[in-house]
User: Which sequence fits this backbone?
């Protein structure tokens, strides 16, 4: 239908002529309430945003000389975080001269990853960044 006729129909109904698909041949238009159309679009976008998964990164800090009880305690927290769907960043912080125990830190991190195999997968292998050795585990 010609544009003039479409505009006349829209004016008679006290509505707006809205272009829905400008790339189509011929372009597709619709007679509707434009304010209501915008409101529904915003509502759909808000709903989609709420449904999208938000990636949360939880951090757990260990030391190179962490005891078994503390290790198990932190492990329990990590399991809970992974079950909730959050990524877990585990780091071993070396204070002062404890940096000479890099191997201990790596062993602790690998042991931590091995304990969490059922709950998550290793996303980033342990690597040393300054005084920290960092590893990231993603939920399964």
Assistant:
């Amino acid at each position: 239908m010609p544009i003039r006729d479409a505009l006349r129909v829209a004016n008679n109904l006290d509505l707006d002529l809205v272009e829905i698909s400008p790339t189509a041949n011929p372009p597709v238009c619709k007679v509707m309430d434009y304010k209501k159309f915008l409101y529904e679009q915003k509502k759909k976008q808000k709903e989609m945003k709420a449904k999208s998964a938000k990636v949360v990164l939880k951090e757990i800090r260990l030391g190179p000389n962490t005891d078994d009880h503390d290790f198990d305690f932190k492990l329990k927290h990590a399991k809970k975080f992974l079950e909730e769907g959050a990524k877990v960043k585990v780091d071993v912080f070396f204070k002062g001269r404890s940096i000479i125990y890099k191997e201990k830190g790596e062993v602790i991190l690998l042991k931590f990853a091995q304990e969490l195999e059922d709950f998550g997968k290793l996303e980033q292998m342990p690597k040393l960044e300054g005084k920290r050795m960092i590893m990231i585990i993603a939920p399964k």
Observations:
- The mean pLDDT is 88.
- The domain at 57-139 is CATH 3.30.110.10 (Translation Initiation Factor IF3).
